[in-house]
User: Which sequence fits this backbone?
């Protein structure tokens, strides 16, 4: 859609330096003859018609040049930033399909609203296994610390911001947040909060070995 | 019954049925035009292009609870919307809508009926229309005072202010064309401009035309002068306590008044329903009325509204002197 493209453009424009222009409003006459002259000048220069012209131009733009701004929300959505912090997602390892979570418990520890509850145990391979994992979304403030602290990029923030639900437990179980095994191919590497930035290599400096 | 009586009854039905329907439809047009000018879509989901939105709104208005506030004067409170809606349609009695035409004889019952261009071609036509429209201002005035609400009181006070200010300008601005035509009948106005586009009174009376348009905007409470019910300042003014069908009657009255003002502007200044070369007068007349209606919506999208003191300043210090000077010059020219 044209206006969604436009939205993307404004995103990039906003990153650049904004140019504010101060309009030249002229002097404001206080009383008497100067005020009268200003009124006559403004009336005769037909300033009101210029305003009409602007709105008419916008109507032509909207109707015939595809510059309508409306997004029909439930049917079409604007793209959100990868750094947007909505309902959490649990990612899987792409190779084995096993979930990435190693049960270290850092997310539970760092959570400032105490909304993550997890229990772990050792499985038969002596690997940490998550036996129970829930997030209480009634308490979660979506600060993103859990995603930032996670050493495995296992818990990340997804893009599901429509979190009205009939049941509080609607999103909060581990299985609900985990990528479904049949959709493993569609799982994308997380680009948002806590992940490595795309230009990470450029930011790395050589550390001199000798002091 | 003779052909003219049947024709007049048909004309009354046309005005009551079609014009009131168009007045309702005007709300849809207004929302659409405002939306396009703000690069939005407007009503979209009820019917194709949101065309059935007025039906949905009508059902909503009909089924809403009719609330009368505890301390309101119940009789006047329920009378006020009737005044606005009724006077808006009474004014249309003297208003020419289309050229006189005869219904083909082949139709049963109404065949051969002569439908006149106005319901009543009274000799004080334009005075009658402006008078009834002015009487319609009793609607907002009484509604605001009867509802025991502070916003309502302020709204009706502003009604009085606005009424006193612009009604002078309306009368004086129309006076100059009346002097040129020498009649108050709307039919005579139309016939005086039968000689093509150069005979339109707008070329002889440009100042009167502009003044009449400005005063017409004030008369119909359109945006530069919508002091009576400006949401940002006085909630809804005289409409604050109204709900459901009573509110709807005010609304229908307002839109019917907009159509009336558009028709007066088209007949008095812009050549009425006369044929122009090969273009039929019917089509041309609808086009003119639609343009003036659109102008009201257009101005609403473009301009901010004025303060009450600015409006009085404009009416008394600018428009009224201009109108008087215009009449003086017209009088001298007519005498010579």
Assistant:
């Amino acid at each position: 859609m044209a206006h969604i493209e436009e939205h993307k453009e404004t995103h990039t424009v906003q990153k650049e330096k904004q140019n504010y222009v101060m309009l030249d409003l002229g002097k404001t006459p206080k009383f008497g003859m100067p005020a009268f002259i200003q009124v006559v000048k403004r009336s005769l220069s037909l300033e009101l018609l210029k305003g009409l012209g602007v709105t008419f131009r916008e109507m032509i733009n909207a109707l015939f040049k595809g510059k309508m701004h409306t997004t029909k929300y439930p049917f079409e959505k604007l793209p959100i930033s990868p750094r947007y912090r909505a309902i959490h997602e649990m990612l899987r390892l792409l190779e084995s399909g096993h979930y990435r979570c190693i049960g270290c418990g850092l997310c539970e520890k760092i959570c400032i609203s105490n909304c993550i509850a997890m229990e772990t145990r050792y499985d038969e391979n002596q690997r940490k296994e998550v036996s129970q994992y829930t997030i209480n979304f009634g308490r979660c403030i979506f600060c993103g610390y859990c995603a930032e602290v996670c050493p495995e990029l296992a818990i990340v923030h997804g893009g599901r911001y429509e979190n009205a639900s009939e049941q509080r437990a609607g999103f909060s179980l581990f299985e609900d947040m985990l990528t479904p095994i049949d959709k493993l191919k569609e799982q994308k590497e997380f680009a948002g909060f806590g992940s490595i930035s795309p230009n990470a290599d450029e930011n790395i400096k050589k550390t001199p070995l000798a002091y | 019954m003779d052909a003219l009586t049947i024709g007049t009854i048909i004309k009354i039905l046309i005005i009551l049925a079609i014009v009131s329907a168009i007045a309702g439809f005007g709300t849809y047009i207004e929302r659409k035009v405002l939306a396009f000018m703000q690069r939005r879509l407007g009503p979209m989901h009820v019917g194709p292009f949101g065309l059935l939105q007025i039906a949905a709104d009508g059902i909503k208005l009909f089924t809403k609870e009719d609330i009368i506030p505890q301390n309101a004067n119940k009789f006047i409170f329920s009378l006020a919307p009737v005044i606005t809606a009724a006077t808006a349609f009474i004014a249309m009695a003297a208003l020419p809508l289309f050229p006189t035409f005869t219904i083909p004889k082949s139709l049963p019952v109404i065949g051969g009926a002569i439908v006149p261009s106005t319901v009543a071609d009274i000799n004080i036509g334009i005075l009658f229309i402006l008078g009834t429209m002015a009487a319609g201002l009793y609607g907002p005035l009484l509604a605001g005072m009867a509802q025991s609400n502070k916003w309502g009181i302020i709204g009706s006070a502003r009604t009085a202010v606005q009424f006193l200010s612009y009604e002078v300008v309306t009368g004086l601005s129309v006076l100059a064309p009346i002097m040129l035509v020498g009649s108050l009948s709307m039919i005579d106005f139309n016939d005086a401009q039968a000689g093509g586009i150069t005979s339109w009174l707008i070329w002889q009376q440009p100042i009167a035309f502009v003044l009449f348009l400005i005063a017409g905007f004030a008369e119909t409470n359109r945006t530069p002068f919508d002091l009576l019910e400006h949401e940002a300042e006085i909630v809804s003014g005289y409409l604050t306590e109204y709900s459901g069908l009573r509110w709807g009657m005010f609304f229908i009255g307002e839109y019917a008044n907009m159509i009336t003002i558009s028709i007066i502007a088209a007949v008095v200044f812009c050549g009425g329903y006369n044929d122009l070369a090969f273009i039929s007068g019917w089509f041309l007349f609808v086009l003119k009325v639609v343009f003036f209606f659109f102008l009201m919506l257009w101005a609403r999208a473009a301009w901010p509204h004025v303060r009450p003191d600015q409006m009085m300043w404009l009416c008394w210090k600018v428009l009224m002197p201009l109108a008087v000077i215009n009449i003086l010059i017209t009088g001298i020219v007519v005498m010579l």
